[in-house]
Design goal:
The protein is of the alpha+beta class. The chain is built from 4 helices and 7 strands. The protein has a domain of 127 residues: VirB8 protein (Nuclear Transport Factor 2, Chain: A, Roll), CATH 3.10.450.
Length: 194
């Protein structure tokens, strides 16, 4: 009799163990599926800048308005410099640079830094037209590049600059920029002379 009772209890425990194993396997499978679904979903971030309408960032594509705003700010940052703000200028550009192009960008910026440091030459850019292409992640900014020596403006020339971007997740980074030459190609540059 004790043998049949212990056999019944063992069978009951075995059945409970099997059901627990099936439930654990099922829960593990569901958690894996939920993790994969969450990882493959497009991420969106809603930005509320000081604009008439909110902007939405998505990991699947970049919004044209957002690319235009970032290009505008990057153009003003990269094309306005003076000897008194060179370190801030360089650090700010490197902060928005794609890590894959960081070394090359820093080398180019250091050339400009060395040339302009200690001089009394400044430059500023007035934007006249800005165009963006979210598909190719490029932007072009047209305007007047003013060069000032001391307190006297020595040149004011119409120039076009192209900005190339990289987009990963919801992070937009500067991959490169330069002046567009007459042939339509962007000459590597961080302003008028780099």
């Amino acid at each position: 009799m004790d043998l049949s009772i212990s056999h019944t209890q063992a069978q009951r425990l075995l059945k409970q163990r099997n059901w627990l194993a099936i439930a654990c396997t099922g829960l593990f499978g569901v958690s894996v599926l939920l993790t994969l679904a969450a990882a493959s979903r497009d991420r969106e971030v809603v930005l509320q800048p000081l604009l008439a309408k909110p902007l939405t960032l998505s990991s699947s594509h970049i919004d044209r308005d957002y690319l235009e705003l970032v290009t505008r700010d990057a153009a003003l940052l990269t094309l306005n410099r003076s000897p008194s703000n060179l370190q801030y200028w360089m650090d700010s550009i490197l902060a928005i640079t794609d890590p894959r192009t960081h070394g090359r960008m820093k080398a180019e910026l250091m050339k400009v830094f060395a040339e302009q440091n200690g001089s009394n030459v400044s430059q500023y850019f007035t934007i006249e037209k800005l165009s963006v292409d979210p598909e190719t992640l490029t932007s072009e900014v047209n305007g007047i590049l003013h060069t000032v020596v001391g307190s006297k403006e020595v040149t004011a020339e119409a120039r076009t600059f192209r900005f190339v971007w990289s987009y990963s997740g919801v992070s937009l980074k500067l991959a490169g920029f330069g002046q567009v030459t007459e042939t339509g190609k962007a000459k590597s540059g961080k302003g008028e002379d780099a």
